[in-house]
Every structure is written in structure tokens, then in C-alpha cells.
Design a protein that fits this description.
- 2 copies of one chain form a homodimer.
- The first copy, chain A, is mainly alpha-helical.
- Chain A has 2 domains: about 45 residues, Homeodomain-like (Arc Repressor Mutant, subunit A, Orthogonal Bundle), CATH 1.10.10.60; about 150 residues, Tetracycline Repressor, domain 2 (Orthogonal Bundle), CATH 1.10.357.10.
- Chain A is built from 10 helices and no strands.
- The radius of gyration of chain A is 21 Å and the shape is elongated.
- The first copy, chain A, binds a DNA duplex (30 and 30 nucleotides) through helix 3.
DNA sequence: GTATGATTCAAACGAACGTTTGAACAGGAT
DNA sequence: ATCCTGTTCAAACGTTCGTTTGAATCATAC
């Protein structure tokens, strides 16, 4: 390994990662066996442990190779907006568009498997597996902090806790929108599949509407939604 | 002889269901073994297959016993509103409150395990397992249809497809809000723990804001939009 | 050519999985 | 006491899991 970089085999690594990405999305981590992965990738069973060390390490690598790029693009989009603003606080819509627009752009990318990964990622936000969630949290720590700070500055009069909640809600709506297209079909069988290009404006309208909604009156005084069914 | 194994008094069935509910929520379906379930429940390994037939049947029963009640309450809440309206279309806020308010009421129920189940349910909306999703779709078919019809009548000028999407987004925000509290903590370590009573008004404001947001321009091009407000 | 290190391969490993078995135990009703 | 029915129990079933092994193959430098 003199000057050669991490370039290893011909394309065994990449084929394993691509196969695993699809299978993890379709069946989940636990239900996807090494034999399924290596079978679909057309490589030997031992190849995964040789190239990645273990199944868990393979899972991490599946996420890392995409998340690195995704979060880099997110930060770039945010910094581009900040450069335009020149020190002034950004408009919330710009911040939201920077974060979620990058996500949806990858969702629309069908040629490089980005769409598959985004669906996998959406499912993984609620993944029970502890080490997967721990890994995701580390990967997200910086970018989330940066966006939250931008939102704090953009909405100085809104309690930070409230902004945190709404960001949480927005993440949920996006994850579900991307990952749960099948679930949507289950709700309404007569539903023609859509290209993610049309999902983007729909989701963005919804997210901004939720973000700008009036604060709950609970801030002033506890109030319960009237739902008396007698 | 060494230890007096606490002779279990109450129902073995219920003990298995309660243990399985917690373990499924913590580890997921595939990662939760029969031995974990029976061990936590304090029953024999064979008890699950004796009482439920199989692990899959146990999963279904875990959901069925709670979903039956949940969806019954949802329909009751909707019908109560419809009775008050007396034939007139309901306001969207009432419909949303009927559907999601019941969910959050169960989330706030800590004494009967309802909160545990709601977190499990939130995670399961994006569950890859095919038979689980099929089962969920059947359980939800009627109640979703009823609520969608109510929304169609409440918003006659909004394209049905658009309402479907926004309902989808709302489901995502709620599921994530309930199931992903840990994820929220990962984003912001300094976060005082959740009190579902306070989650309710927060989420409701967000959902209604998203539901009433202006439609994306792409849709507006072809249709005139009227904004109904509550 | 041969040597050397990286990669692939078939085969096997022990562990854990869901499920099944047949005996043991319980408590009424006859 | 006996039978019956429902339930619990320890043990084992066959399968599949992730991982490991050691030899075969390939590529490149000597």
C-alpha cells in the first residue's frame, strides 16, 4: 500500500454496499442476512467480513458513505444562504429549504441510488437498534447544531424548546413522507406513484405552514383541545 | 428448590403480551427472541406457541388488542363531532383533533402501558416486515377512510390528492413525535423529559399549521384555492 | 520464472433462533 | 378415586445466523 489510496478490490466493496442498501431498505437490518447480501451482490459469503469486518461495520459504512455527502451538502446550502444574508438572520423558510431541500434532492436522484438510501434513512430514524441510532446521532450532531442555531437566530422571540419541537416534527413529516410511500398506498389503494420532484413543493409547503403556525396557547395558560364525546 | 419461583398468579397470556410490547418497542420484532419475551414475562418458553400459535401471531395480537380500542375511540370522537355539527361539514381542526387527540391521549396513559404501545406503533408505521404492514393496513382501513371522507367534505376545494398527502405528513409528524423522543434527545442533549400533556398542544398547532398552509404553486396553477380556517 | 501480498472461495464452526414434543401438573365434574 | 381438559415444563428438534478457516487464485514486483 504505497501510494494506492483506500482503493481495494475491483468493485466488490461497492457491489456489497449497493446490495446491502437495497436489502436493508426492503427488509430491515435484522431480517437481511449476509447470505442475502452476498447472493444479490454476486460475491462470496466471506467477502463482507473480509472487506468490512462484520455485519455491523457494513451497516455503518452503508450510512457513512451517503451521510457524509448529504450533510456536507446541507452545510454548504446553509452557508450559501448565510453568505447572501451577510450577517443578518436568515428567513426560516431559507433555513428549512436548505436542510430539507438537500434531502429531497437526494431523494430525486434515481441514478446513483440516492433515492433508495433516503428511504432507508427515513426508516432508520426510528430504528430500535441502539448502535445504529448512536451512530446516526454522531453523524448528525454537527449539522443539526448548525441549523438549530440558525433557527434560533431567525426566530429570537420563539422559545428555543418550541423550535426544537417543531424541527423534530418537521423531521418526522419528511422521514415519513420519504420512507412511507408504501404506507400511503395502504391508506389509499388508488394512488398513482409519484416522482419525488412533485413531493418537494408539497412537503415544503406543509413544513413551513407547521413551522409558522401560531404557538400553542398553553404558553399562556393550559388549555385542552375540546373533544368532549360525552 | 433453592428459590421459590414466584408462582405466577394472573393470566399468562397478558403477561406475555405486556412483556412482548415492551421488548418489541425497545429492540424491534426481529431482534426480540421468544426466550427474551418468556424470560421477562416469567413463563415457560413454550407458552407463547401454546397461547398464540407462533411469534407472528403474537405480534399481531400485541397490536390488535390496542388498535381495536384506539380506532374505536377515534371513530367515536369523529362521530361526536359530526353529531354536534348536525350534517354540516366539520372544521378541519375538529377532524384533526379527533384523530390525533385520541392518539396522544393514549400516549399520555402511563398506567396501562398505552404510552409504550404508542411508541411501538409509531415505529411500526415504517416497519419493513411485510406481514406486519399488511396487518396494520387492514386494521386502519376503515378509520382512515372515514377521516379522509370527513376531510374531503371539510375542504371541498382542495384536491383530494393534496389532502391525502397532508394527512400522510401529519401521520409522519405524529409518529415521529411519539416514537422518536430519544432521537430528539440525541439532537439536543439538554432537553427536559417529555410530558405528553404538553406534547399535545404543540403537535396540534404544528399539524394544523401544515394542513392549512397555502398549496404549492404547482397545484395553484390549475385550480383556484380557497383557504378555510378554523 | 518465483515470491509476496491481496483477494476469493467452499466448507465448516458454534451459537441462537422459532418451534415441537411428551410427560408432569392442576382442578373440577362425574 | 377417576377421568378429562387445560396448562406448564424441561428438553430437544432442525434451521439459519454471523463468523472463521485454510487453501486456491490473482496481481504485481523482483
Amino acid at each position: 500500500m504505497s501510494e494506492a489510496t483506500a482503493k481495494q478490490g475491483p468493485d466488490t466493496r461497492a457491489r456489497i454496499l449497493d446490495a446491502a442498501e437495497v436489502l436493508f431498505m426492503t427488509h430491515g437490518f435484522e431480517a437481511t442476512s449476509m447470505r442475502m447480501i452476498t447472493g444479490q451482490a454476486g460475491v462470496n459469503l466471506a467477502a463482507v467480513n473480509y472487506h468490512f469486518g462484520s455485519k455491523d461495520a457494513l451497516i455503518q459504512e452503508v450510512f457513512r458513505r451517503r451521510l457524509t455527502e448529504l450533510n456536507r451538502d446541507r452545510l454548504a446550502a446553509l452557508e450559501a444562504e448565510e453568505a447572501v444574508a451577510g450577517g443578518a438572520p436568515l428567513k426560516p423558510s431559507k433555513i428549512v429549504a436548505a436542510f430539507f431541500g438537500v434531502s429531497l434532492k437526494m431523494t430525486a436522484d434515481t441514478t446513483h441510488g440516492g433515492a433508495t438510501f433516503m428511504r432507508l434513512l427515513g426508516r432508520t430514524y426510528t430504528e430500535p437498534n441502539e448502535f445504529v441510532r448512536q451512530f446516526l446521532a454522531e453523524e448528525y450532531a454537527e449539522v443539526v447544531q448548525r441549523f438549530m442555531d440558525a433557527l434560533y437566530r431567525a426566530l429570537p422571540d420563539v422559545p428555543r424548546e418550541e423550535i426544537l419541537w417543531r424541527f423534530h416534527f418537521m423531521m418526522g413529516a419528511m422521514s415519513y413522507a420519504i420512507a412511507g410511500t408504501d404506507a400511503l398506498k395502504l391508506f389509499a389503494g388508488d394512488f398513482d406513484d409519484e416522482d419525488p420532484t412533485r413531493l418537494m413543493p408539497r412537503l415544503m409547503s406543509f413544513l413551513l405552514g407547521g413551522l409558522r403556525a401560531p404557538l400553542p396557547e398553553e404558553v399562556i395558560e393550559s388549555r385542552t383541545i375540546r373533544r368532549d364525546a360525552a
